[in-house]
UniProtKB/TrEMBL annotation:
One of its GO terms (cellular component) is nucleus. This is DNA-(apurinic or apyrimidinic site) endonuclease. The lineage of its organism: Eukaryota, Viridiplantae, Streptophyta, Embryophyta, Tracheophyta. It comes from Rhynchospora pubera. Residues 1-47 are annotated as: Disordered. The record marks N234 as: Transition state stabilizer. One of its GO terms (molecular function) is lyase activity. Belongs to the DNA repair enzymes AP/ExoA family. CDD domains: Ape1-like_AP-endo.
């Protein structure tokens, strides 16, 4: 989740809709992993088409490089114990490959300067160790140290196709690297980092978030397979999903009050965002996996984002990281857990978000 204390940077229907396109075209290179896999990989996939990922993990790392430098051994042990088939990361915050002024390749880490080469080496060394060497990684990166997503998939469970845009055109990436979609035989797995709603209409953050929500709604209405959608969705659906509803619903930035009451309050907890999210779930026939299993409010372990332990956000927490699944999959949900707890951010591994996991049963 974007820090709440700063305004967000400016960034550029009920019937079955065609998807709005808002993807950034990229230079096509051999490193572009979008679209179909190679012939050999497809042959291997056909041989193992009855194998599907069943265990998933999502985490907003709030800078993957910083986590690798400071908390990686603990996170590695956690991943090794949980042994997920798919790991989805948001806020990678590593720039896309490409020299200044040149076309960027969001599927590759930047390495055209001595500093970026060193950073890339640090990341690749970390990913070459247990347990991460068991995964293949796909990246969708921003042009700067902002945003970005990654998806790690066990090598023996490779997807039929990976795309990086809501219209599922493999050679395109969403702006700021906000989407990765892996297609398996039985379902889609989508990793997203939703734009923060921000505090003010004038800063273009409200329109940006409305546009994003509209495109997500169109996507969930158009897909032809069941969906497992995870990531930092930057919204707390109901009062039960925040620690202090009154605090968040009345929050202001420097005393500013938006003209529309539905836009008032903490980004991620405005009525407008929550109602749009509810509409996505209803129109897309989707289930919030965590809330499906956990009906009661959990003040210790029921939130995935926690405010800084020092200051007015101490102890203020939100559930904004999700696993959303198609209703067709709900009877297969075995577990959905939030792995951090407490106002001191235990189990957050240095981020302001903690990991969330999902486990499904085998198809009957």
């Amino acid at each position: 989740m974007k820090r709440f204390f700063k305004p967000i940077e400016k960034e550029g229907s009920a019937k079955k809709p065609s998807l709005s396109s808002d993807c950034a075209s990229t230079a096509k290179t051999e490193a572009d992993d979008g679209v179909a896999l190679s012939d050999n990989e497809n042959e291997n996939e056909n041989e193992k088409k009855d194998l599907h990922p069943l265990k998933f993990l999502t985490w907003n790392a709030n800078s993957l490089l910083l986590r690798i430098k400071n908390d990686w051994s603990h996170f590695s042990s956690f991943v090794q114990t949980l042994d997920p088939d798919v790991i989805c990361i948001q806020e990678v915050r590593i720039p896309a490959a490409g020299a200044k002024g040149a076309p960027k390749n969001p599927g590759e880490l930047k390495d055209d300067t001595s500093a970026s080469r060193e950073e890339k080496q640090i990341v690749m060394r970390a990913l070459s160790t247990v347990p991460f060497k068991e995964y293949r990684v796909w990246w969708s990166l921003s042009n700067s140290k902002y945003g970005g997503t990654a998806m790690f998939i066990k090598k023996h469970l490779q997807p039929k196709k990976v795309s990086f845009c809501l219209d599922r055109t493999g050679s395109k990436h969403e702006q700021d690297g906000r989407v990765i979609i892996a297609e398996f035989e039985s379902y889609l797995v989508m990793n997203t980092y939703a734009p923060n709603n921000g505090w003010k209409e004038e800063e273009n953050s409200f329109p940006r978030r409305r546009k994003w929500d509209k495109r997500i709604l169109e996507f969930v209405q158009c897909i032809d397979k069941p969906l497992i959608w995870c990531g930092d969705l930057n919204v707390s659906h109901e009062d039960i999903d925040v620690s202090h509803p009154d605090f968040f619903s009345s929050a202001k930035l420097n005393g500013y009050v938006p003209p529309n009451k539905e836009d008032c309050g903490q980004p991620g907890f405005t009525l407008a965002e929550r109602r749009r999210f509810e509409n996505m779930l209803t129109q897309g026939k989707l289930i919030d996996a965590y809330r499906f299993l956990h009906k009661e409010k959990d003040m210790d372990s029921g939130f995935s984002w926690s405010g800084h332990p020092i200051g007015k956000y101490r102890g203020k927490r939100m559930r904004i990281d999700y696993f959303i699944v198609s209703e067709k999959l709900k009877e297969r949900i075995i577990a959905c857990e939030i792995h951090g707890h407490g106002i001191e951010r235990e189990g957050f591994y240095g981020s302001d978000h903690c990991p969330v996991s999902l486990k499904l049963s085998q198809e009957a």
